[in-house]
Structure formats: structure tokens, C-alpha cells
Amino acid sequence: MTFENADATPLPRTALLTGVGRRRGIGAAIAHALAEDGFDLALSYSDAYDRRVNGEPSDVEELAEELRGLGRRIELVPGDLADPAEPPCLVATAREALGALGALVMCHCESVDSSILDTTVESFDRHYAVNVRASWLLLRSFAEQVPPGTDTPGGAVIALTSDHTAHNLPYGATKGALDRLVLAGTHELADRGIRTNVVNPGPIDTGWMDDAVRKAGAAQTPGGRLGGPGTVADLVRFLLSPRGAWIRGQLLLSNGGFATPAV
């Protein structure tokens, strides 16, 4: 099954999603949405990260069974993206299982709270390795599977970002670098028919918020409420649809107006 981009070139309805370790996370919501839209999926995750940072094991196997129940092919590809050998292996494994990939959606991150004065070199380097280097290597490997030329099937790449930096310094700083490298892909990879976008969803409660944080976040949103994983998934599925194919090289704020000053 295929869908078409703005130039009526069919793209494979297959996708590699990273950072899909927990069923209540953004990656899982995107996986559900794309499976409903007919995508076969390779899901990348790190159980060690979920245990270390989220305090709970990955439950991606249960997610995979739910998605297979929708009639989709689902491949699980665990791995530590801090290892520079891992990104090309993930793409190769996904291609072997599903065939040519039509989309890459990067939801993975290293995110450990720390500030200018207490961030360690080890932590900063790991944030850079996962959030920036791995994203570049994934993008490069995804692009290498698509030959240049007018008959290329092309592809779509989406990365999730954030503008939170204070007291979350290495995370925010490396997300800024992520934005630049992904958006460059729309121009550098145009001959391969690849379009790239970055989505900033604002604060999304995936289990890390307490009542005080939820209340404060909702108060900074004009609608008086926070978005959920499904609000992110809605935008991603639009960007990967024929109707979203003309949106390219953009950093999109999909945050309900969070902390946006009145004009």
C-alpha cells in the first residue's frame, strides 16, 4: 500500500519510529495513529533508558501486539543510540523486515535534568550522542536508502524537539542542534525527494508531571489545558499524509499557544 506526495510520487507506507518504549509515551501514540493509517512499523526503544530515567521497564511488546491486532507488520528493534554503530543498524534492520522505508519519525531523546553549574561532561556528551549524533546518523542512513533522481520514491522525516533549556540544559541545548540538522535535510536531500520537519509539541504529560506542574502548564496555555500524546500524533499523521506533503523544512509549534505572549 502506498500514499502520494505533492508530486504524485508513491511513497512506501512503512516507517521507523524511535523512542517507542512506553505505551503512554508520545512515540506509542504516533505508532497507534500510523498503524491506523495503514503503516507497517519498526519500533526502536531502549529498556535501559526507560528503567534509568523513567523508573519503569519498557512495555513495547504489549504495544506491538496491539498494533499487530490492527493487521500491521511490527518489528521491534532495541538498541542504545549512544553507540554510533546503532543508528545505521536500526535502519538496516527495519528495511530488512519491512522493505524500503517511507518515513522516519524520531521521538528518542536523552533527558536528564541538570543546569549550567552541575551538568557533568559525561552527561552532556551522552545527550549530544543520543539527541544529535544519533539523529544525524539515522537521517543519513534513511537518506542513503533512497537513490537520487526524478523517479525516486522519496521519504519524510519528522523529529520531535523542545525549547526547554533552563535547568534542563544538555537536553535543551542538544535539541537546538537537532532542529538545525533535521531542517537542513529538506534542502540537502531534495534530489532524493526527502522532506523534513521538526515538531515542538510543548509540555506533554507522559507520566513525568505532578498536579502542580499540570496546573501551572495549563495556566500558561490560552485554552486552559495541556495537550496529550494524541495531539502530537495528529500532527505527525497529517505531515505524513498526502495533504501534508507540501509542508517542508519547518519547525512547527503544536503547543496550544503555550507561553505565547498575547498580541
How many beta-strand elements? 9
Shape designation:
globular
Radius of gyration equals 18 Å
Can you count the helices?
A: 8
- End-to-end gap: 45 Å
Structure classification? alpha/beta
| Strand coverage percent | 15-25%
- Topology order in helix (H) and strand (E) letters: EEEHEHHEHEHEHEHHE
CATH class, anyone?
Answer: Alpha Beta
The assembly state of the depicted protein chains is single chain
Assign the CATH architecture.
Answer: 3-Layer(aba) Sandwich
- List segments where confidence is low: pLDDT < 50 over at least 5 consecutive residues: 1-6
CATH superfamily assignment?
A: NAD(P)-binding Rossmann-like Domain
Strand order of the largest sheet: 5-4-3-6-7-8-9
Largest sheet: 7 strands, parallel
What CATH calls the topology is Rossmann fold
Written overview of the protein:
GO terms for molecular function: oxidoreductase activity, acting on CH-OH group of donors. Keywords: Oxidoreductase. It comes from Brachybacterium endophyticum. This is Short-chain dehydrogenase. Belongs to the short-chain dehydrogenases/reductases (SDR) family. It is globular, with a radius of gyration of 18 Å. The longest helix is centred in the middle third of the chain and has 24 residues, at 121-144. By secondary structure, the chain is of the alpha/beta class. The model is unreliable at 1-6 (pLDDT under 50). It has a seven-stranded parallel β-sheet with strand order 5-4-3-6-7-8-9, sandwiched between helices. The chain has a two-stranded antiparallel ribbon with strand order 1-2. The protein is built from eight helices and nine strands. The chain has helices at residues 26-36, 47-54, 60-68, 86-98, 121-144, 169-188, 211-219, 229-239, and strands spanning 2-4, 10-12, 14-18, 40-45, 74-78, 103-106, 155-160, 194-200, 250-253. The N and C termini lie far apart (45 Å). It has a single domain, classed as 3-Layer(aba) Sandwich (Rossmann fold), CATH 3.40.50.720.
